Amino acid sequence: MKVLLQHRVDILLFILLFAGMSFALYMALIGAPTEKTMGDIQRIFYFHVPAAITGLTAFALNFVASLMYVFRKNRWWDSLALSSAEIGILFFCMLLITGPIWAKPVWFVWWTWSPRLTSSLVLCLLYAVYLLIRKSFEDPDRKAMVAAVFGIVAFADAPLVWFSIRWWRDIHPSPMLETGNLDPSMRPAFYTCMAAFLVLFLFLVRRRFYLEQMRNRIEWIYRRTETNRMKGILQ
Amino acid sequence: MNTMNYLFAAYMAIWILLALYLFSIHSREKKLRDEVERLKGILDKVE
Lengths: 235, 47
Known about the structure:
The structure holds 2 protein chains of 2 kinds.
Chain A: H1 2-31, H2 45-72, H3 75-107, H4 115-135, H5 140-154, H6 157-167, H7 176-179, H8 187-234
Helix pairs in contact in A: 1-8, 2-3, 2-5, 2-8, 3-4, 3-5, 3-8, 4-5, 4-6
Chain B: H1 3-46
């Protein structure tokens, strides 16, 4: 019954994702008006900003799941932390690739070491290290605990990414939604893309989480078989 | 380079990244399913 329900949720999410992404693409490339100063290149913004927000949401989820693992020592939280870290890296890769593509014709450079760009790159690298740390431990409980502590510490960079353009002078554009600089005619396209990215985030986290759960079960079978074999030898 | 080329490059990059990640999840899932089948085979032999 539970499996059937999960399967139905997966199908529903997939339909939502397909429809949402198709509509988001239409809104970003055709539906939204062309920006006066930058022209069509500004349309990158409709996928770039949602990728940033979704990536930060994924890292926040990793932070919460890591905290829960430290307190509860339940592998369920560890699987969720790992899934969200991986998805966060994916969205930040989208961000760090589309950003320079936008910057080249607008700033005339691919990259500059501004606070927002640097802190975003550092955050992405920190979670790449998080994944590497996980690979360097054999014992699953120790691996989960070290990764959880690292995940909690790594999240300290996330507020820097968010507030960098508010705290320091930065070449990066100011937050358009808060300052009201986003034209009302561009808002429907932006909100559609944001919603589509959140559905994509849910879809990917679910897929990655089930994969990790399956891996945990297989690992458990191996450990149990090994324990039984050891018991057999000792008896 | 025309700005439309940059726009095309950015959107292509997003879809390629997403496709690669979905492919990676799918191949890891397939590997685990094969592992489950192998374990089932071993258990059947033991029983």
